[in-house]
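Q: Could you predict the 3D structure of S9 family peptidase?
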Amino acid sequence: MTTTPLLLVSDHVEGCAHLVTVPDGTEVARLTGRHLSEHAGFLALPGGRVACVDDRRGELLVLDPHASGPVTAAIPVAVPAEHLAADPSGRWIAVTTGLGRNAAPWSDLLTVVDLATGDSSRVRTRVGEPGVTVLGSEDPVVVLRHREPGALAVHRCADLLTAPPGCPPVEPCAALPLPDDGHGDAQDPRERRVFAATGEGVHRARWTGDRLVAEPVIRWGAPARGWYLRLDTRHRALWSTLRGGPADPVRWPEWTNLAWRHGLDTGTTALTDLGPGLVFRLALARGHTAFARIHPTGDELVLLAADGSTRRVPLPAMDGAPRHGGTPWEGVQRRAVAAAPTSDWVAVTRGGHGEVHLVDVATGTETARLKLDTPLHHGGHAVLLPQPHGRDAGDPVGR
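A: Sure. Here are the predicted structure tokens for S9 family peptidase:
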């Protein structure tokens, strides 16, 4: 068992995941033949474990990267995996299905797993690409965020796990309407509150035990919107990146990007300009929030400190990066960014090159560059895993 920080990097196209030490890059384990869902991402669990979905085999994997055999559970689930979430204790996990390599949503299957018993159940809800959160650890509920028509739909885990075989359709025990353009989910475990990003702002609702109660919408405060949400459990804040500018994806170099932070206890919102181009997911380090920005004039890692100061770390260009006149999604390389709330390291991938840049946020300098033997197509996906730190796993939604 190792006690050094570990980085798990997945090349989901090649079907390989690398577990390496930070910062020296020694490979301590490797998963082969595993095509981990980049969209569902990695889900932190208590005790330093992590959950993810093998989209080809149709399995929920629970990994203990600090143990000698990293795969501790492999449970069948419906795929293609769209979103992944757990209750705050890490016992109950929900997996929704989405597009996969299809032109339109086609699956209505939801899988719920009880890791304590190994029991699982598949049920039918609504065709789409639903987001998901799991509220509470005593009598937990699965909250699905649907689109077109938009809604928050609540299902009790106990009811789902006792559903008969054959993937029966299920009806929610409670629901609230949402705008049709929801995209992005988070929850506050302390308050049993769920958040959903829409064009209007962040819709929020609180589970009272038998019903979902809507609360005032948190406005973005800018002529742009966030397409995902991230919970900072250490500072009790919601984060997103607000994307503005032209709707045409071919004009992506003109997109504007604002870092958006909303304090859950203070109710205050702060906006910071990140620069134009493509800013995808963000990552939370000990005292900084990290954003990877891609632009034809040069890529960079943007580090936003708690005091509002900003560091910008240039990143070398990628062969096959998005270019003028094309979209930033189809047939191009991207970057994944990883950090941990208990660490001062940030990892940024260089898609197509099999490289990972390790940056010390305290100094804003690249201290190591890891070279892997798979190319990290599309940027791959990564998660930074410090040594186990008790029961609090942090954000209970897969990223």
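Q: Anything worth pointing out?
A: The first helix runs from residue 157 to 161.
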